[in-house]
């Protein structure tokens, strides 16, 4: 048995209890192999409903190893999952190679449905983004939102495909607002809502983060001398009971720069002000080089300076399918009680 096969077997054995729990919760989307922590850096294997998505980031996976991996994981699960392999170690990484072993069938590359927390999600195994439209490491945050949103107004910032909003609606929120810059992301969010027709309707706001959150927080939008700002939707100042702040690692627009390493405060301050008294702000930082303790102290200091001191806080780690040998996973989450 190869070293990869041994690592896959150990990883599955470590997950057996978790997978039984997830299946009981109505979840069939999870990580089966987290190579950086389980013996094969740069290799991941994820289940998304009927699909097995294998991705290599450092070097291509040999055809025989790919076939063995697919067979071994399907046998362990007892389910015949369709294979999609994205070799992201090369340019044009989301295209099929010449060898037929690497070529996903058309059905696997079409729109699929995955389930998490007993909700349906649109899945696309290969597209222009970085994942199949659902970030698996945020699963426990979405579950927490679902359990803690009853009767609340919820603001989902950097909403992506609105998974958090979907969980809030399923959890009984009285109002859900999803805000994202990309209409393509919100379009998938609307698809997700349509896949769960029994849920109440949600709001979708397409806007750059900075003008939207500053308006909600009652703050002015800075003007740049000699430069006209792009149009943005007008929003009234408003506070929410539950706010999720899950920004990308870095992005830049005419209104400001998202930089989780150097300037988390510019994102955090208006989000604090848009969270109502007694409310909860769930903030995330997915940059591996940021230390949890340092970031937590930065967040707490910013809250005090903003005039919204934190009454209590809780850290939430990713699920056990995202193991971390040193206990310092890239995704860091703080629930702030204001």
Task: Tell me what the structure shows.
The chain is of the alpha/beta class. 31% of the residues lie in helices and 25% in strands. The chain has ten helices and 15 strands. The chain has helices at 3-24, 35-38, 63-77, 106-109, 139-147, 163-170, 183-194, 209-216, 265-273, 292-306, and strands at residues 29-34, 43-48, 51-56, 82-87, 112-116, 119-123, 153-157, 175-180, 203-206, 240-245, 250-253, 256-259, 275-285, 312-316, 332-337. The strands form four sheets. A seven-stranded mixed sheet has the order 9-8-7-10-13-15-14, sandwiched between helices. Helix 7 links the parallel strand 8 and strand 9 (203-206). Helix 1 (3-24) packs parallel to helix 3 (63-77). The radius of gyration is 21 Å and the shape is globular. The model has no long low-confidence stretch (mean pLDDT 95).
Kindly provide the radius of gyration, computed on alpha-carbon positions and rounded to a whole number of angstroms.
21 Å
Count of individual beta strands: 15
The mean pLDDT is 95
Question: Beta-strand percentage?
Answer: 25-35%
Q: What is the strand arrangement across the widest sheet? A: 9-8-7-10-13-15-14
Q: What coarse outline follows from CA principal-axis ratios?
A: globular
- N- and C-termini, Cα separation: 54 Å
Low-pLDDT ranges: none
Helicity, in percent? 25-40%
Order of secondary-structure elements = HEHEEHEHEEHEHEHEHEEEHEHEE
H/I helix tally: 10
Largest sheet: 7 strands, mixed
Give the helix/strand class: alpha/beta
């Amino acid at each position: 048995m190869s070293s990869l096969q041994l690592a896959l077997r150990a990883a599955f054995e470590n997950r057996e209890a978790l997978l039984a729990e997830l299946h009981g919760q109505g979840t069939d989307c999870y990580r089966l192999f987290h190579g950086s922590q389980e013996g094969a850096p740069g290799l991941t294997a994820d289940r998304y409903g009927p699909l097995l998505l294998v991705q290599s980031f450092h070097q291509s996976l040999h055809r025989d190893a790919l076939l063995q991996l697919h067979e071994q994981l399907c046998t362990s699960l007892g389910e015949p999952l369709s294979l999609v392999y994205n070799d992201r170690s090369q340019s044009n990484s989301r295209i099929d190679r010449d060898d037929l072993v690497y070529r996903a069938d058309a059905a696997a590359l079409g729109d699929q449905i995955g389930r998490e927390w007993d909700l349906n999600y649109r899945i696309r195994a290969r597209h222009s983004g970085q994942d199949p439209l659902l970030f698996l490491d945020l699963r426990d945050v979405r579950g927490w939102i679902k359990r803690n949103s009853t009767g609340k107004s919820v603001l989902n910032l950097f909403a992506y495909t609105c998974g958090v909003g979907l969980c809030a609606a399923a959890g009984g929120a009285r109002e859900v607002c999803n805000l994202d810059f990309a209409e393509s992301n919100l379009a998938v969010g609307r698809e997700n809502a349509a896949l769960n027709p029994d849920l109440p309707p949600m709001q979708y706001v397409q806007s750059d983060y900075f003008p939207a959150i500053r308006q909600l927080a009652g703050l002015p939008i800075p003007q740049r001398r000699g430069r006209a700002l792009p149009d943005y939707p007008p929003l009234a100042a408003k506070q929410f009971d539950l706010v999720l702040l899950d920004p990308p690692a870095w992005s830049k627009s005419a209104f400001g720069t998202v930089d989780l390493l150097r300037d988390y405060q510019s994102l955090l301050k208006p989000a604090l002000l848009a969270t109502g008294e007694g409310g909860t702000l769930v903030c995330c930082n997915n940059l591996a080089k940021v230390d949890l303790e340092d970031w937590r102290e930065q967040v707490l200091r910013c809250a005090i300076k903003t005039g919204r001191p934190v009454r209590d806080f809780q850290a939430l780690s990713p699920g056990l399918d995202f193991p971390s040998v040193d206990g310092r996973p890239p995704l860091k989450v703080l629930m702030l009680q204001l």
